[in-house]
Specification:
Blueprint (H helix, E strand, L loop, with lengths): L2 E3 L13 E2 L24 E5 L5 E3 L9 E8 L4 E12 H13 L7 E6 L4 E5 H4 L5 E6 L2 E2 L9 E3 L12 E7 L31 H8 L3 H18 L13
Parallel strand pairs: 1-5, 2-6, 3-12
Antiparallel strand pairs: 3-4, 5-6, 6-9, 7-8, 7-12, 9-10, 9-11
Length: 248
């Protein structure tokens, strides 16, 4: 039975500068609107960085108890979609039950980089990822993740702006130092923690100021990502029905 996580305060009211949006669009950094995962049928996550044993987690994830939670999604560009029902595995459980005993991260390897199949990447401190509401999710609103929202596996970190919640996760790295890491896009756009409650939209500029930079881009960006998805779906045929599925 999945473990239910109760709705937290962050999911019941809008944070500073956020505006509710009825739909949940495919959205992201503009260079990634036309990039898609190559593998959506099964989950496999590589573990690397400053670890004793690099490895790939696939079926091992099923050893971890499933978790369900309701949370809001806060995009850094100031829109929020409320009450999403996620299902998957607590990052903390995956780390403690699989990564620590199998990969053996080095002492102090607490700078974590997540990489997606589409080439996107983001980082967070390990302490933030170990929060009880951070998931590696494979289901949304009762159905498997779609390509639009991160299939086959994505990070869900409700206390952080959406650009930290990497979609199509393929690799997680644990490093002792952040010196060699370069964020996607311009440096000012990527805060090391991007906490919603503190309005950490980016670096060097106050969050309230960045609202006015980002807000005019919302509809244009959502349209670009939707158009790219439609083109992709037109090119890729749907999977054939399983040979073992009976017709009824």
């Amino acid at each position: 039975m999945p473990i239910a996580i109760s709705r937290t305060e962050s999911a019941t009211c809008l944070p500073p500068g956020q505006v509710a949006r009825d739909d949940f669009p495919r959205f992201g950094a503009s260079p990634f609107d036309g990039r898609f995962p190559t593998q959506t049928e099964r989950v496999e996550v590589q573990i690397g960085g400053d670890v004793r044993h690099s490895l790939a987690l696939a079926g091992e994830l099923q050893r971890v108890a499933r978790t369900e939670q309701c949370a809001d999604f806060h995009c850094v560009t100031t829109w929020t979609h409320r009450s999403l029902q996620w299902s998957g595995f607590r990052f903390a459980d995956v780390y403690e039950q699989l990564v620590q005993p199998l990969a053996e991260p080095a002492a102090g390897a607490e700078f974590v980089v997540l990489r997606g199949q589409d080439g996107y990447r983001a980082s967070l401190p390990l302490a933030d990822l170990l929060a009880s509401d951070v998931l590696l999710a494979d289901r949304l609103n009762g159905a498997p993740l779609s390509i639009a929202h991160g299939a086959p596996l994505r990070l869900v970190a409700p206390a952080h702006y959406g650009y930290k919640s990497v979609k199509h996760v393929r690799r997680i790295e644990f490093w002792r130092s952040s010196a060699s890491y370069r964020p996607v896009g311009l440096r000012f756009m990527a805060h090391p923690r991007a906490r919603v409650a503190a309005e950490e939209r980016g670096q060097w500029f106050p969050g309230w100021l960045l609202r006015y930079l980002y807000r005019p881009l919302i509809n244009r960006t959502a349209a670009r990502f939707d158009e790219a998805l439609q083109r992709h779906q037109a090119r890729v045929p749907p999977p054939e029905p399983s040979q073992t599925t009976s017709s009824s």
